[in-house]
Amino acid sequence: MKIKTTAEDRMIAFYRYFSLSLTSLMYLLDHTGPSVLYKSLLIIALFMIAQVFTIYYRRLRARPRVLMLVVSIEMAGVIALTLLTGGFESSFKLYVLNPVLIAAGSLSFYFRWSLLLSYIGIVTTFCYVFLNSEGKSFADAVLQNGNLFLALVLTVIVMQMVNRIKRQREEANARTNETMEHIKSLYHIVETSSQHDFMNIGQVITDYVVKLTKLDKALFWFAKKSGEPAPQSRQTGWQHEEERFLFTELEKHEHEWRLQREPVFKSLPGLGDFLLMPVRMSTRFVGMIGVKLESSEGLEGRRWYIQQLMFLSELSAIILERHELGVIENRLIITNEQNRIADEMHDSVSQSLFGIVYATHSLKQTWRKMSESELEEQIDLIHDSATKVAKELRITIYSLSSKKSGGPTWLGMVRSHLKSLSRLNDVEIELKITGDDFSLPYPYHKALFRIISEATGNAIRHGAASRVDVELSLKPKWIRLSIVDDGVGFDTDLLWTTSEDTTSGLGMKNMQYLAQSLGGDFQLSSSENAGTKILISIPVGVAELKNA
C-alpha cells in the first residue's frame, strides 16, 4: 500500500540525510581510526539503514507503540555507533538528533525524555569508564560535553512547543470543519425539508440526527393530532421488524411526553437507554426526537448529545411550522386566485353574457314585429357582443397561462438553470425533453426541479464530471428522468452505509425522498471511475390520491 508522504516526513528525511552526509564527511576526513575503505563501507551501510528507518517511520506514524520500539532500536544503534567511533569525540554524536526528533514530534512526553536521558546516561557512563584516558571525574566529563547535552535538551523542548502548536492548529481545523459541516447540515435540512411531505420530513430529520450525533440509531415519534391520525413516525438504524415494537413502546408514554419540556433519559424494556427531546411548535406538541445511547458513553458525551438534540428539536419545530404555514399559504393563494378569476369573469365576461342573453330574449319576443333591416341590425349587435365576450375570455385565459402569454415556463427555467450551471463550471450538460409539462401539477414541478438541480450539482462538485446527460420524458401517466455523468463515481454500497458523513450521500437521500414522496421509484448505479447514473420513475396522480 502506498503511504502518502507529508511535509513533516519530507523535512525529517531531509535532515536525516543531510546530517548523515555531514557527519560521514567529517568521519572520512578524520585521519585517525580505521582505513578509508572500512569507513566507506560503514557509511554505505548507514545510508541503507537510514533508508529503512525512514520508510518504517512513515508507515508506523499511526501506530505509536510499534513506533516506540523502532525508535528505541535506532537509538540503540546510534549509541553503539557513537561509542564504536570514539564516544564524545565521534563525528556521529549529533546524529542522535534523528531518533530524538521522531520521539519529540510523534511520541509521548515521558518516552521522549526517557529516550534522551538514557542516551546521555549510557554514553557518559561508558565514556567515563572505558574512554577516560585523562582520568577526568564524572562531573568533568558531563561539563565537557554540556553543549551537546544542552543542544539535545533544547531540541526536545522546541519540538514539544512545535508539536503543541501543531495539535492546537489541528484541533482548530477540526472544530472549523465540524462547524462547516454543521452549517451545511443546517442548510440541507431546511432546504430539503421544504420539498417533502410531512412524513418524509421526519425521515430527513432522523438521518441528520445520526449524522450530527455520530450514533447508530435515531427516531422521530409523532404524537396524535386532535381529530386527525398521527403522522407516520420515522427511524434510522433499526430493523423493519423492530420498528413497530419501538413506536408501540413510545406510544405507551404519550401522556408523559406531552408534559415534558426538557430532555429526558429513558430506559425502554428490550430496547435499551434513550435520550429523548420533545418537539413543540408554537401551537401544539409534535412528538419526540431521540437517540439510542451507547453503554460506554460518559457524562460529558451525554451533555454533548443533549446540546445536539436541543438544537435539532428547535430546528424541527421551525421546519414543521414552516411546512404547515406553507400548506396554509398555498391554500390561501389558491383561494385568492380563484376569487380573482371569479371577479374578472363576473366583471367582464359574465356581464357581457348577461347582455347577450337579455338581447336574445327580447329578440325572441319582438322579431315578428321587426322589419327585415331592424332584425338584421339586432342580430349583428348580438354577434358583435358574442365576439367581444369571446375576445375577453381569450384575454383572461392567456393572462393566466404563462405558456400562452409568453411568460417564463417551468421547462424554460430548467433549461436556463442547466445552461448557467454549464457555463459557470465549464461542464457540458445535454438536456433532452419529450412531452409537455403544461398539465403537470405544481408539486411535480417543484420536486423534479430539485432532483435535477441536486443531481447535476453533485455530478459537478463531487463527481468532477465533464459531461452530464439529462433526459426527461413527460407522459400523461408517467414521468421518467435519467441523469448520467462521466465523473469519478463511487461505491454505492459504501454510500448507503456511511452517507451520514458525506454531503453527497445526503443529497442522494434527498432525491430518493423527493421521488418517494410522489409515489415514485429511485434507482442509483455507480462504480469508481465509471460515472453515475440516476433513474427515476414517477406515476402522475399518485401524490394527489395519497394526499386526498
UniProtKB/TrEMBL annotation:
What's the chief localization of this chain? cytoplasm
Kindly state which keywords UniProt assigns to this record, in alphabetical order: 4Fe-4S, ATP-binding, Cytoplasm, Iron, Iron-sulfur, Kinase, Membrane, Metal-binding, Nucleotide-binding, Transferase, Transmembrane, Transmembrane helix, Two-component regulatory system
Every copy of the Histidine kinase domain together lies at 448-542
Q: What class of enzyme is it?
A: transferase
Where does the chain cross the membrane?
Answer: 12-29, 35-57, 66-86, 115-131, 143-162
Q: Which EC number(s) does the record attach to this protein? A: 2.7.13.3
Coiled coil segments of this chain? none
The protein's name is: Oxygen sensor histidine kinase NreB
User: In which organism is this protein found?
Assistant: Paenibacillus tianjinensis
Lineage of this protein's species?
A: Bacteria, Bacillati, Bacillota, Bacilli, Bacillales
